[in-house]
Amino acid sequence: SEMCIRADLDGRVDTKDIVLLKKYLNGNVTLTVQQLVLANVNGDNYVDEEDCKLIQQYITGIIDKFPVER
What we know:
There is one protein chain. By secondary structure, the chain is mainly α. It is built from three helices and no strands. Residues 1-5 have low confidence and may be disordered.
């Protein structure tokens, strides 16, 4: 995927993004507006477990694009 969607802003989509999102969802970290926009990979305007699942599917090769890229 050419579109840079990654919560930790390092330019890659990887397990660090899932870890960061889970920390956010558990209330342990705060994300910036930019991070929230990038983490909302399904385009529903909410960052939630569904986004985590999609990022995991992307990392493991189940999907090659996020819904917001379609």
